[in-house]
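Q: Here's a chain of 486 amino acids. Please give me its 3D structure as tokens.
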Amino acid sequence: MIRLMEGIVVVMVRRTIGSRVPARARRWIYAILVASVAGGILWLCRLWYLHAEASTAVDRPILALSAVLGMFVIGGLSVLLAEAARDKSGRVEAVLSTLPLSRRAIAGIAWTPTVALACACVVVSLPPAGCVLVGLGYPVGEAFALVASSLAIGLFVGVGALCGSYLLLRSSRWNAARYPIAMVVWISAAAALVAESFLLLAQPGSFASVVQLLPLVAADAATGTAVTAPLGFACAACALAAGAAFVLVIARSTDQGHGRTVWLTWGGGSPFVRPVADLLYVVRDATSLANIVGAFLANVTLVVIAWHLPGLLRPQAVPAIEVVIAVFVASPLRGLRGVFPARLPPQQLIGLPVTSWVTSQAIVTIAVATFVAAPGLALIALPGVAPLSALAGLAESSALALVVAALCGWTVPVSGDNALGQIVMTVVCSVLLVSALTFVVPVLAALVVPVRLGIVLGLVVATFLLARAVEGRRWGVPMIEGKVGL
């Protein structure tokens, strides 16, 4: 069993860095990767520690609360990231089923890489969050007890949402629906718990704080109080319950593949024959469909939350909500190129011009981005929000998400069954997108709306021209194609 898990991890790493890399070079790559991660953690710890140490008395409760709530969010997202990165095609399970293994053993082996990577993401995020509280003057033990308690609650909520989707949707035909439903349930529960945390800070002793653990941990962090023994035991029980429930999720995921029924048929009579065919090919992939629907439902949930905010908070909250919408827009777009093989895709084998195929894929990418970002249009009708400004902000954020996701997806295409590559590129794409939204959007805000939209449109066109150049180099075709035959 251990050797099978090691073999799957080796295959996963080779899919990410290439199978032609010699063993000695792979060892150097592993060493450099570990050293880079360790150096990055130390740098973040030092940066956040100095930032917290130099903060004012007004900022200290906000920083402490942000560290605790951030660990809660990371705990839930790590669970959903493991489900999103898992190969849902059933190919791994089908291969392992030829060996004398039980169905639960097969599920455990298939889940091990993604679970291990999600745990690594959680472990990497713990030291910086703890250093924030240490920089604020908390003792080391109390600081890490607070972030660990918040992390345990986040894991419990994330696993609870995922476990509920598996228990309610047991058949393999629902493989593509479990992740979106779990994402929506988790966002709703997380929003409710975060709102209750602020409610407890504003109104100490409220009834909701008695039955919900996160508000109590957040209040302890904001007021500088140590975690009490009963609260600590309750959070530890949440972590244990999350682990037991996740084992149940793994046991329920033993169905191989998805349903054989083709529920989207196509006769080829559309005027946009090739884009329609490519779009249907994408949505028939279980992982891509789950990411698209999950991102759409998550944005619907964000818009519903925005409509329930107090009137005074809406103008300030809309830009932040548009940034989160853009992050969800980018999540399914990055993997669209990975639906097809990185080398020798079928379109190349049948002699299709690379420019024609990239143009078709650009239309599909824009269509998916429009669909996922469509719920954000409801922000325009929010009372107290400038409609034109909200529309321009949504268009700019979504277009930047498309640009960053398309660049990441076309330069480094990662297949759906490459869990390591999926998680690494998700983190890289998210960091690049947040950086772009942080630095580019304020610059665009100083310009008039037509100029802003023109610049964003130019970035989108330049992105797909670059994608054409990258794909042409991959196919061995120059930028200006001649006649291509079979």
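Q: Can you summarize the key feature?
A: Residues 275-486 form one domain.
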